[in-house]
């Protein structure tokens, strides 16, 4: 049962699937010179880190604007406004389920003991547990993505009935404004992503209700996606993009956090987009990915597929993990030493 939302949902027309994935590119120059993408304010994605480290050459990235929404980001990739996007796996599956020709090609976010997203309330809030959220407002970064999935799972495991879950209202907030909305009591609880959670916790006055790490353990929860059309036309560019991003992930994994933070802060200052600062990235602690180089595995998707089946979403339930992701371009796909 979906939670009550303060918006009108619009439909998405079924899209015609493109031909199967091209085989792994054997080498050669990228077919395109640049990749268009949306960023996030005061944050640095792994492709941006890869470009800064020189791992994407000769490819260049072209920033076309910012987004706070994974579903919106991958829809922009489907429509051709960008060449790649990123979202949590629940959102990726929903879009593929209605015919979007997307393929997850490398993990980009997840949970581990150091980096996780949490559902927070104020220290003096009457909200003490899941049942107290009935009839209250919860801040999320976007509809239909990871925050909503975690919230529903949290409430379901606590034994709340679908009718009770439907009485929890979701309020969409930019991640940079989420903490402020909670402290101003505009909402009763809010999801905070790892870096913003660390930043908010350093100021005190908030209390954790549940984390996604407590629910699911170490887990890759989101990916970068390409369209099947892009891969078929640009297999070398796809290879350079994925392999360079994978190398950047492993660079961050093997460096001391202080060195990674310094590099992320430098990237933000150099791009000079306006309205940004490095205060959030200074709380970076880990890559929070369960597999080397962002390699994907069936288990990263089966959890969400099972949830969609249990909730009667036939369009998504028919999907198989092998239909929604590929490791074909990831140089770390064989011999990984961490779980997916």
Automatic annotation (TrEMBL):
InterPro entries: SsuA/THI5
Taxonomic superkingdom: Bacteria
Sequence ranges assigned to domain SsuA/THI5-like in this UniProt record: 74-254
Pfam families the UniProt entry points to: NMT1
Listed name of the protein: ABC transporter substrate-binding protein
